[in-house]
C-alpha cells in the first residue's frame, strides 16, 4: 500500500440535517427524515462515493436550548452514535466510522469494548473521537449538579485513554487458536489482565472481545486548549480542530506537531483536519444567495441560544443589535475555552453585534467558512493544505443531503484532478487509508502479569 | 391486528457458536466465524425465516474461566450487543432484537437513549433484557473489589428501570412538528424534564432522542428470586426463566402472574418464556448420538469451571467423580440464587457426581433440555404451553448454525401445522408480534414540570 503524501484526508461530518443552526428549515433539507435510517444510509453511501476517509459523528448527552426556551427551534433528536455507526457499517465498505464518546460520563471497559466491537463489525473502520464534555446540562443527566472542572476532566481523560488502550492490548493479535482437536479455543498465555489501578479507575481486565482488525480504532481528538494539545500530541492520531485564519491554523499545526517528539512520535503519526463549512454555488452569486437564505432562516432566539452555549455566557438579556457584554476572564470559563477565545476575538476584531456574530457562526460554529464556486472551494482547501495548516479537512455540509451532494459531485472531482485527493480507496482499514501505522501491542512492556 | 392466543412466542437465544459449553468443538459449528458479522447475519435471517419473535443476546462484562485457568477452553470473545443488534437491524425486517444490559454497571440516560435509538433504527423491534450482574470479575472491571449485594442490586435495578421509562416518556408521541414555515421543529410544551431524584440516581432529562416507535422497547427480565419475581410482576413484559420440571414451571407461572394484579396489570401483559435446549435428531438414536457427541467434547476443567460459576462455589479442589461438597446456605450466596437452588436440588435428587452434573448442565446451563425427533420436540413444547407453564420458549441451539437450522426446518413446520405458531408475522413492531400494548405516555401523571 502506498500513500501519496500530497493527498489530503477528508471527513464527512454529519450533523443531521445539516450544520447550519437553521439547516432543518432549508427548503431542500430532509428534516422529516431525521430519524429515518434510510436517509442517513444514503448520506453515508454518498460520502463513500466521494472517497471520504471517514464519516464523523459528534455527540452530547443533553438537549440544547432549554434555558433560553428555544428547545422547540433546535434539533434535539438524533441517533446514538454506536447504534447508527454499527448500522452504517453494514451498508458501506470502505469509509471510516468515527464516533464521539465522552470520557467524563462513561466507563473505560464499556468504551474499549464497543469500539473493538465496531472495529470487528466494520472490518477495521472504527475511530473514537475523545471528548471531555463541557455542559452542566449533561452533568445533570448523570447525578451531578455541575460538570467537572476543566483540569479534572483532562486528568480523567488521560487516564481513561490509557486504560482503554491497555484493554485493547489485553488480547494479543494471535491469541485466538480455535483448535477443535486440541481443545484450545485461545492461547491463554496471550490473554492478559491489565490490572490498572489509578486515581480515577481500577480495572482488572482482560476485555471480553479479541483484539480488533486495527489493533486500536483510530483515536481522534478535538480540544485546542493547552491540556487538549498536550493530550493530542501524546495520544491522538487525528485532530479535528477549529481555526478561522491561515496564520492561526499554521501556528496550531506547528505547535502540536512540535510537541510529539517528546512522546517518541513522528509528525506523520497525527493528521490535523480543521473543520470547514463550505457554502457552494455554481456561481459566486449563487453561493452568496445560499448563504443569505440560511441566515434569514435563523430564528432570533435560536441564534442567541447557539451563541450563548458556545461562549458559556447567557446572552438572552442583552440587545440583539448591540455589542457583546463584558465577558468573564478566560480562566473563569469552564466550557470550551478555545471556542470562547475564538469568538471573543472575532467579535472584537470586526466590531460585531450579537446578531451579526450569531449569523456569522450559525453555520460553521466557530470553524472556517469557505464560500464560492467549486473551483474557489478547492482553492481555499488547497491553500491551507499546501501551507502547513492542515493534513486534510472535516467537511461540515450546511444542509443535507444537498450540501454533501454538491461537495461530492462538484468539489471532489476538482481535488482529484489536481492530484490532491484519492480516486480510489487504497487501504483495507481506516488506518491504512489515513496512512497510520497499526499499533504494536505494547502490553508486554507495560503489563507484567498474565492471567 | 389479531393475535391468536393459542400461538406460542419463540425467541432465538444466540450464544455464538452455540449454548453447549463445548459447542465450539462441534465438527459443524462455525467457530472460526465467531467474530464474522456475515455469519451472525445468516443466523438472524434464519431466525426470521422461522418467524421467531425475537433474537435474544445475553451479555456480561468479564471473561470467564480466569480463576480456574480454563480461559483458553472458553469462548470469551463476542460482539457487544448494541453494535451487533444495530447491524442486524439493517439485514432483517420483522424479528425483534433483544439485548441484555445490566443496571449495575450502566447509567439510565445512556441505556434509555441506546434502546430508543435501536428502536428507531429497527422500526420498533427493540427489547431490553434487564439484568443486575452477579460476578466479582465484572465488579473488578468497574472500580469495585466485589459486586453489590443482591438486595442492593435489585434496589438499584428498580430505580434504574423507573428512570429509564421516565426518560422514554420525556418526549410525547406528537412532540415533533418539523414545521419549516412556522420555525417550529418541535412543540416545546411536549418535551419534559423528568427531574428524577432518588437514592441511586439524579437525572434531569429530557432524553435527546424523540419517543420511539414502540413507546417503550419491550422489557424482558430473567431473575426468578423473590426480588426478581416482584420486579418482573411490576415492570416486565417478557420473562426468560429456567425450569427443569413442568410442576416448577407451573408454580412459577401462577406465582408471577398472580402478583401482577396489585400493580394494575393483567396476566396477558407478561409473556413467560422458559429457556429450552433442544437436542434434535431425525430419529431418537440420532438425537442421543448428538447429545453424547457434545458431552464427550467437554474438557474436564471447562466443565468444572462452568459448574463452579453457576453455583458461585469453586469446585476445582474436589474429585470430579465424587459428589458435590457441602454447599453454603442460600442466604450466603451472592450470585444467581435461583440457579444455585436448581442445581443443588438436581444433584441431590439424582445423586450426581460433579462430572455428571456438569455434563448435564453444560448445554442447557440450568434450563430445560428436550431431546428427540422433531415430533417429540414439538410435543414437549406443546405440553408446557398448554398446561399453564409457558407462553412461549426461548430456544437455545446447542451449536450454530446447525442447531438453529434444524429447529427452523424440522420443528417449526410441525408447530405451525398444529396451529401453535405463526406462519407469517402479523404485526409491524415487536410489541404487536408479542401481543403487547403500546405503553401510554404516563408522564403527565408523574411529571409535574415541563421545560
TrEMBL record, chains A, B:
A Pfam family hit: Bac_luciferase
Protein EC: 1.-.-.-
UniProt enzyme class: oxidoreductase
One annotated GO molecular function: oxidoreductase activity
Keywords for the protein's UniProt record, in alphabetical order: Flavoprotein, FMN, Monooxygenase, Oxidoreductase
Start and end residues of each Luciferase-like domain: 20-389
InterPro entries: Diverse_substr_monoxygenases, Luciferase-like_dom, Luciferase-like_sf, NTA_MOA
Similarity comment: family membership: Belongs to the NtaA/SnaA/DszA monooxygenase family.
Name of the featured protein: LLM class flavin-dependent oxidoreductase
Species this chain originates from: Metabacillus fastidiosus
